[in-house]
Amino acid sequence: MNIKTVPLSNVKITGGFWELRQRIMRDISIAATYYQLKVTGRINAFKLDWQPGMPNPPHVFWDSDTAKWVETACYSLITKPDHQLREQVDELVASIVSAQQPDGYLNTHFTVVEPDNRFTNLRDLHELYCAGHLMEAAVAHFQATGSSGFLDAMSRYAGLIDATFGPADEGKKPGYCGHPEIELALVKLAKVTGNEKYLNLAKFFINERGNVPYYYEIEAEQRGEPPKPPLQVFKDREYRQSHVPIRDMEDIVGHAVRAQYLMAGATDIALETGDAELARACHVLWDDATVKKMYITGGMGARPEGEAFDDAYELPNDTAYAETCAAIAMFLWGHRMMLLDTDARYADAMERALYNGILSGISLSGDKFFYVNPLTANLVNKSLERTTWFGCSCCPNNLTRLVLSLGQYVYTTTDDALQVHFYVEGEANTAIKEVPVTIKQTTAYPWDENVAITLTMLSEAEFTIQARIPGWCRSYSIWVNDTALDTTQLPVEMGYVALTGAWHDGDVINLKFDMPVERVHAHPAVAADRGRVALQRGPIIFCLEQVDNGQNLESIVLPASSDLDASFEPSFLGGVVVLQGNAVKQDIDGWKGKLYSTHASDAKTIALKAIPYFTWGNRNPREEMIVWIRESP
Amino acid sequence: MNIKTVPLSNVKITGGFWELRQRIMRDISIAATYYQLKVTGRINAFKLDWQPGMPNPPHVFWDSDTAKWVETACYSLITKPDHQLREQVDELVASIVSAQQPDGYLNTHFTVVEPDNRFTNLRDLHELYCAGHLMEAAVAHFQATGSSGFLDAMSRYAGLIDATFGPADEGKKPGYCGHPEIELALVKLAKVTGNEKYLNLAKFFINERGNVPYYYEIEAEQRGEPPKPPLQVFKDREYRQSHVPIRDMEDIVGHAVRAQYLMAGATDIALETGDAELARACHVLWDDATVKKMYITGGMGARPEGEAFDDAYELPNDTAYAETCAAIAMFLWGHRMMLLDTDARYADAMERALYNGILSGISLSGDKFFYVNPLTANLVNKSLERTTWFGCSCCPNNLTRLVLSLGQYVYTTTDDALQVHFYVEGEANTAIKEVPVTIKQTTAYPWDENVAITLTMLSEAEFTIQARIPGWCRSYSIWVNDTALDTTQLPVEMGYVALTGAWHDGDVINLKFDMPVERVHAHPAVAADRGRVALQRGPIIFCLEQVDNGQNLESIVLPASSDLDASFEPSFLGGVVVLQGNAVKQDIDGWKGKLYSTHASDAKTIALKAIPYFTWGNRNPREEMIVWIRESP
Prior knowledge:
By secondary structure, chain A is of the alpha+beta class. Chain A contains 16 helices and 24 strands.
């Protein structure tokens, strides 16, 4: 099929929902996160001047935080040149490169803190994970600047890693990183450099993982660690997805970010090599992850212990971990799955995460972040508040790098078709059948249901536009140059409606995805959501906050008959659609001195106001919030 | 007010619900639990022939299990002589007494396993707890047989304990047991022997507990134990209710059996001494326990970790611990509260536990037991099945001793009144104003709503009969000798209706407590029960089992409009009332491949059958069960 992404440099987001988010990130988040990298010592760590006895030694995952900042900044530069930011990036990149050792090694922690322990604890110490993020940063820097210094440095480091790790019969260590990331980074590096060695190394990491004898256990024995109890050993293996080879996995388990970075890398390998067995595993695990273990917000990994996937349908709301990075990881994996087969359910899950469980990770002000994204804030977890930084600060720069690179996920092309995966205002330049085409989207999506797609072309061409019908959408209309199409007659394949014809310069396709307020039910096996509904309009999942609806949100019951109206409030929470209608609220006062009663709670009618989930906690933090509302039929 | 219980020897349970239970316990349970005591080594432990190096050393709490068996058997003998059982008891008692050391000490574990460590670890090793249970057994044996050998032995042991523990300024150890029990036992011993010394020792234990410096920490230091982290120290204190003096407690916390045995002892002391400050604490903690931390079954202690009370309103159903012993402990405490002030809410809570969370602890066959009594059996805990015995087997003999001594809880008398607390078929002999009165109850309670009380008296006497209006009862009728009384004109004080008059031999009072099927709601703060109802009829709480209602009980929704009929099935589960009616069940099949949907589950009408909670798990164990059913208004 020869599917290709339309690269970031070709896609400009010029207005609407995402331009606002990108603007805030360019104006606020990039500086705010750089400040944190600086004051915590992460930037200066590359000077390698830490010495034993000094405070604040470079931590094992520090390099990755800085690398993601560089990557973010480069994506910003690709889409909007900024001389000052460019200088700041180049200076930091020079500092990073200066930390490279003569043999190509580049890791601040190991170089200054434990130089003798390089590559002796892949299980715990994030060494190749950091290398992977530095490689991704180097690729982005090359793409943003055309300067290859960082890329060359990381290629040298990749060469060292390749010389170190590989099949035991080649005299190499048969290891793989405790935190996957390098796999997908090596695929990027291979593509941009054209060097297949990196792809082969990624393939080795993917294929070797989970083989017996277990590398981490051999490695631990070599370090002289005492053996752990069998149950702990088993849990440790699952935590790092090293319990069985990927091909043999039937369930997605363990640390949710690791699992999904790994699967993103595995999907890359399946794509690059055409490995059908590996692709099968990617499909099985994707289904398990998104059909049994995904919050309605796209949050992934329910279990706080081990930041892990829980059992199927175990999706508690108040103790939900749903790490920002895990939702991002699903997005990154979904993008690769979409290249494997263009089924709209990938974009559906990605969109679900993007507008909800990912975006909730950042404050509207752009300088505060959530690491965990629960679906209920109550006594159990109501101390939650977005904060400027974390000790383990993977999420902030992961979120900004995703949003500032969003353009590259919007379109793909195949030989004779253009796929529109997401509805984002902006312009993209590509070519179909070698005819250059500019696609312009004009839309207030997700607040509004209309999307206008305008084609600018130098010559007429016959091709297909495959536009995704969002999974949340139950009815839609399409016009081509003001002529309404009979949508019942249009072919829809795997969630994409196909508009085939001879397209001309100036052609306009109008899409209207009806956006009623919907009540969503969860699979009956999800205990936490039984008898409850979530409110959704378009891709946006809503929530109730205490500041709008009073205390005891769990006492609110939404009658099935209650109509909810959607209205856009331009000066509320940065401009959002809110939902309003009547509900009833149970009265707690009548319960004084009683624990059980044959008399149900008295209830009074209240005016309900629901806001987009991603905006919660931006007014009065440490108050109640719920997504799943009790419903009375 | 001079309230007195009518002792067990004066109350015969002659038919109906409790005669059946007592009969099964006499015929089956007593022998079955003796067998377990025997084969596990508990009986032979009193021979003191264990030596270091031999397997199966006497465990620290073994003596208490045997003591409770003796107590149970003695209650059986008091209410129904049995020559063979008497011989078995006397033989065992002789063996127990033979294990007493010259100085009065009596504990199999410490005598043979660690003779040098007597009284050095009150915190963990149940030493005074075992002594307390042996004292209770000795009192029961004296009451059952008139023979004082065991009582004298335990008085000697109590003397040794009194010489060892007490105020530091008297040169004694200011300690108290990690597992309360001896306090209430010493009060019993004081009453039956008339020796105030034991009462004073109990008072010391109650008053000293929780004082600074903390005894257990001093004791641990003396044993050379390394100090624990501060949080652990704090948790350890709360676990054993030794964090503050009882008078300063505002919440009931920690291990639920320990907490309630302690409060039973504290209530005893408040009763015996008239200590208003202590009585206040008893009231505050009773309210906290029963108005904020009690399952609808009377189960106490929600939290498996530490077998402990959870926070207020934290009453999850599937992970409910609700240890059988903890519900029994509440019953024992409630009895003492009832003597402090005759408020029907004590008997209401006791009755709730008795018919539900206590009785669920034993199989209908009388030989298998539950230690924990969850309100939902599902994937989380569906491996639950009653078993013949436990490593820590406190519950079986605790349950039998309660049921076989039930008669003593039915009535109390004051100077000019008789209180009827529970409705139990049988006869009791007492005297009011020195006039001997026999009260006979004829009733199929709790299956039937009618209770007939017949008085047999040698002479007419004027007094008041205070009959408890059960808390579950919302309308009732009373007839005296076939004359209907106007219940609106009758004085009801703290839940007891007062019938005052000149009573004659042969007078019959008929009580009818209307028993509709009721839907019970929980306080809105109980998250697990929101949008759900429990079914109740009279004091019986019902549940649904998979064997009657199919799999996926959580998919059943009970419409508010659905009528439920109650019918007695004499040959089902030993003769129980079952509830039947229509409900709807959500269809899980339509959800294949979906996790969220705007389409609510399809539902079909099903015939619902609910059985008494206490009978659950007697047919197909390891299947689903729920108490709280989702309701649609």
